[in-house]
Write a sequence for this structure.
């Protein structure tokens, strides 16, 4: 059985409850999300809760990590999703203008990279930019350390890509780095694992849990089908630490906006302060401190190119979203225009 405190409940959330809600509704945290049925953990245990029709199209759609209020009956019905402290989101797969929240109320995002594949600094940069935009702290976890005899180069590459975010070395097989990892999660905090398939995320979760990962509590027969959906994300409570969210839906984060770029590339921003022109684009202008740093070997040219690419991507996303917002606005005005036309017509007739 869990306490709400172990699940990450605190004053930020309790302050959102009216006294009526506090006396009539139950508080729980979504530990697995799959469509209309949510597995919610209450102090008394896990139950499957229903998302009522009127909340289906509404924002926010409850996801793993959300704190929810439900009716006390069976099945519990979601009454309200509490305001999030943070949300990890990405562009919904294949759609340029739809934001998809992957996990809610996350404190730290653990960006996992298997050392058998090297550090992949460009991929780390892209993911870290998305993490910075989420409001959660980033950390890089280089795992499968048992497979590589010499970490030096990968570690240096990852540190350069991480721009000050902590870089941990770990192994789900040898157990190296697990204590430091649990320390990053910490009691009352929530971490989410992000990384490509096969990076070793689930192995780390199992090692942290000290057991093979399993859904807690009985699963009803009619729910079995849902367990095989590829978008199910699950929240686990670590013994003595906080919570971690793992799932196949969170592999690559596509950039949603430019909000995280400055933080993810704060070293470039610091260099740019030394450029002769304030609006220097670091594209061949005289007195460019960024180009100077690349020439002197203090800044990796690949890293600068990576920033450029991400800036272009973010600008494109934002432009597309501008188009989507304009379309939505048009639809919003349509009924009003119709009513106006009717009004004028009636007036002209009268
Ligand atoms: N030697 C070694 N192998 C590992 C380690 N971690 C994971 N592996 C292996 O790498 C493969 C992938 O590990 P998973 O933990 O399933 O990777 P994942 O990131 O959860 O993958 P998805 O669930 O597909 O996103 C498995 O064959 C693991 O046994 C490690 O620390 N050391
Ligand atoms: Zn410059």
């Amino acid at each position: 059985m869990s306490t709400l405190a172990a699940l990450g409940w605190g004053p930020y959330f309790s302050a959102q409850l009216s006294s009526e809600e506090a006396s009539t509704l139950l508080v729980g945290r979504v530990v697995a999300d799959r469509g209309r049925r949510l597995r919610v953990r209450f102090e008394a245990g896990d139950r499957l809760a229903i998302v009522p029709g009127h909340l289906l199209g509404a924002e926010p759609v409850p996801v793993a990590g959300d704190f929810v209020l439900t009716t006390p009956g069976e099945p519990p019905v979601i009454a309200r999703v509490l305001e999030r402290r943070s949300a990890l989101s990405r562009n919904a797969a294949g759609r340029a203008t739809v934001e998809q929240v992957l996990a809610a109320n996350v404190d730290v995002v653990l960006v996992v990279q298997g050392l058998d594949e090297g550090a992949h600094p460009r991929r780390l940069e892209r993911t870290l930019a998305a993490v910075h935009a989420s409001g959660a702290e980033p950390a890089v976890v280089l795992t499968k350390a048992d497979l590589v005899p010499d970490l030096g180069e990968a570690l240096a590459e990852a540190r350069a890509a991480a721009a000050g975010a902590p870089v941990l070395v770990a192994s789900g097989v040898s157990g190296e780095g697990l204590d430091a990892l649990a320390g990053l999660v910490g009691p009352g905090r929530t971490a989410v694992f992000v990384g490509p398939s096969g990076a070793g995320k689930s192995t780390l979760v199992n090692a942290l849990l000290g057991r093979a990962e399993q859904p807690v509590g009985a699963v009803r027969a009619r729910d079995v089908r849902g367990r095989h959906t590829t978008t199910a994300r699950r929240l686990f409570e670590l013994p003595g630490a906080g919570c971690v969210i793992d799932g196949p839906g969170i592999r690559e984060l596509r950039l949603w906006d430019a909000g995280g770029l400055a933080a993810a590339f704060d070293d470039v921003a610091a260099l740019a302060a030394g450029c002769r022109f304030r609006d220097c684009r670091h594209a061949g202008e005289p007195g460019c401190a960024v180009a100077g740093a690349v020439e002197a070997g203090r800044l990796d040219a690949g890293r600068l190119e990576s920033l450029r690419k991400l800036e272009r991507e973010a600008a494109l996303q934002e432009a597309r979203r501008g188009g989507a917002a304009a379309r939505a606005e048009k639809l919003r005005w349509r009924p009003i225009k119709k009513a106006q036309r009717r009004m004028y017509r009636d007036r002209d007739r009268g």
